[in-house]
Design goal:
single chain, alpha+beta, four-stranded antiparallel β-sheet
Length: 414
C-alpha cells in the first residue's frame, strides 16, 4: 500500500460525495452506532492512577550555556550531524527549531554560536535530576533527557498530600538545579503530556480526574497536538472539518466512514481523554545529510535497508510493514508504504530526486517475534556418540534431524 499527503484531498472529496448519497435512515444508524461505541469505551475509564509528565525546557542548550560562561549572553545552538538538536532561550527568540539545518539557523541570526553535542556531560547533569525523581517514583520512565513520566499514585497515598503540592515541590527542586520545567498531571500519560505542553516553559497544569472535566479539557485540544496522532491522520481530520478533539464527537459519520475500526477506536479514546501512550513497536534507520545525487540517494536507501535488517536481527524481530520517508530542505515530506523491499527508484518518482533531500528514513512496524530456530545437531556428532557406545553398528546418514533427538530415539531410528 502506498500514499502521499497530496492524495488525501481527493480521497476526502470522494468520501464527502459518498456521504451525501447515503439516506437519512442510514446516517441515523451511524449516529446510533457511534453513541454505542462511546458508551462502551466510556465504561472502561480508569482514573485510579496519577501520572506526572515533566518537560525540561531546552535541557542541552541550558547545560552548554551554564558550562561556557563566555557564551552566557549569546544565542547557543547545539548541533549533531548538521542538525539542530537543542538551543538556549536566546536562540529561541530567533525562531530556531529542533531538526532545522544548522545553515538555516545561521541565516536566522548571524550571531548564533554553534556547539557540538556532548552526550557525556548531559548524562552527568541528568543524573542529578534522576536523583530527585527517584524520591517520587523509583521506576520513572524516560526516553531522553527532556521528557519524563512519573507515577505518583503511591506517594499521594502514603504522604496524604495534595497533587499540586507534589508538582510544585518537584518543580522547585529542578529549578534549583538550574533548569526550567513544565509539569502536567492527570490520570493517564496522554493527558499529562498534553497538560505539560500547555504549561510550557516553566509552569504546572493539572487535569481533574472527573470524566466530564476531562472531556471538557480535551474539547479545545487541536488534533495535531495529540501524542500518537500522525501527520497524515491529523491532516485528514482537518480536511473533514475536525480541528479539535471535541469535533471528533460531533462528526460521527465522518469518523465511521472515513477510518478503519482500529482508528475509530483510537479517535474515540482520544476525544474522551482515555488513550494510553505505549512504547512504539517500530525500528527505524535514518540518514540525515544533504543529498543531491540520485545515484547516491539510491545507494543510501539500500544501505539503510541493510542497517534496518541488522537492527531487526538484534531484536530477533520481523517487520510486517515498512515506510520510507524523504524530506527536503524545506521540510516537505514524501511518503511511501510497502510490505517487501523495493528499490527507491520504484517507490519515488524521478521528479523528487531534483529537490535537495536532507533526510531519508525507513521504518519497520508491526513487529513480530521470530520463531526460534529449531536446534539441529550434526549427523557426525550422533555417529561418533553412537559408535562409542555400540562400536559395531553403523547408523544411517540419511537420518533427518528436524528435532533434538535422545540417544534412545537415535538408536531406534538407525
Amino acid at each position: 500500500m502506498e500514499f502521499t499527503l497530496e492524495e488525501l484531498p481527493r480521497k476526502v472529496k470522494f468520501l464527502k460525495q459518498k456521504m451525501t448519497q447515503k439516506s437519512s435512515e442510514y446516517l441515523e444508524q451511524l449516529n446510533h452506532k457511534f453513541r454505542a461505541k462511546l458508551q462502551q469505551v466510556q465504561s472502561k475509564r480508569d482514573c485510579s492512577e496519577t501520572w506526572i509528565h515533566l518537560d525540561i525546557y531546552l535541557f542541552c542548550g541550558t547545560v552548554e550555556a551554564r558550562n561556557n560562561p563566555d557564551l552566557k549572553n549569546k544565542p547557543i545552538v547545539v548541533v549533531s550531524n548538521g542538525l539542530v538538536v537543542s538551543f538556549n532561550a536566546l536562540a529561541a527568540e530567533y525562531s530556531v527549531k529542533v531538526g532545522m539545518l544548522f545553515s538555516t539557523a545561521k541565516l536566522l541570526c548571524n550571531s548564533i554560536v554553534f556547539v557540538p553535542e556532548n552526550f557525556t556531560v548531559y548524562q552527568e547533569e541528568f543524573s542529578k535530576i534522576k536523583a530527585v525523581l527517584r524520591v517520587y517514583d523509583p521506576n520513572f520512565e524516560y526516553k531522553h533527557f527532556r521528557k519524563v513520566f512519573l507515577n505518583v499514585s503511591q506517594v499521594l497515598k502514603t504522604r496524604k498530600t495534595d497533587l499540586e503540592e507534589v508538582c510544585e515541590e518537584i518543580k522547585f527542586m529542578i529549578n534549583q538545579l538550574g533548569f526550567q520545567v513544565s509539569i502536567g498531571a492527570a490520570c493517564n500519560k496522554m493527558l499529562a503530556r498534553i497538560a505539560s505542553s500547555i504549561a510550557k516553559p516553566d509552569s504546572v497544569c493539572l487535569v481533574p480526574h472527573e470524566s466530564t472535566q476531562i472531556v471538557g479539557f480535551m474539547e479545545v485540544v487541536p488534533v495535531g497536538k495529540v501524542p500518537g496522532m500522525n501527520k497524515a491522520m491529523a491532516y485528514k481530520l482537518r480536511l473533514l472539518g475536525i480541528y479539535t478533539c471535541g469535533d471528533i464527537l460531533n462528526h460521527p459519520k465522518e469518523i465511521l466512514l472515513g477510518f478503519t475500526q482500529d482508528k475509530q477506536h483510537f479517535l474515540i479514546k482520544v476525544a474522551l481523554g482515555m488513550q494510553e501512550l505505549r512504547c512504539s513497536q517500530k525500528v527505524t534507520a535514518k540518514l540525515t545529510l544533504p543529498i543531491e545525487d540520485p545515484w547516491f540517494l539510491e545507494e543510501a536507501f539500500e544501505g539503510l535497508c541493510s542497517y534496518l535488517a541488522f537492527k531487526l536481527n538484534l531484536k530477533n524481530k520481523d517487520a510486517l510493514k515498512f515506510c520510507a520517508i524523504l524530506e527536503d530542505t524545506q521540510c516537505n515530506s514524501y511518503i511511501r508504504k510497502f510490505r517487501s523491499f523495493q528499490s527507491l527508484s520504484e517507490l519515488i518518482p524521478k521528479e523528487v530526486f531534483v529537490n535537495k533531500i536532507r533526510k531519508v528514513s525507513i521504518t519497520g512496524s508491526e513487529l513480530l517475534d521470530r520463531k526460534p530456530a529449531k536446534p539441529k545437531k550434526k549427523i557426525d556428532e550422533f555417529v561418533n556418540l553412537f559408535s562409542s557406545i555400540v562400536p559395531d553398528s553403523k547408523p544411517s546418514k540419511k537420518l533427518k534431524v528436524s528435532k533434538p533427538l535422545t540417544l534412545e530415539k537415535f538408536i531406534s531410528n538407525s
